[in-house]
Amino acid sequence: MKWIKAISSGLVGIIGAVAVYELAVLWGVAPFNIAPLAAFMLRLGMEVGAAAFFVHLIYGMLWSLVLVWIFDTNLSIQKGLGLSVFLWLINGFVYAPYIGWGFFGFAGTPEVAEAHQLYLRPGPWLALITLIYYLVYGAIVGWVTSNWIKSEADVAGQIRKHRED
Question: How many domains does the chain contain in total?
Answer without folding.
Answer: 1
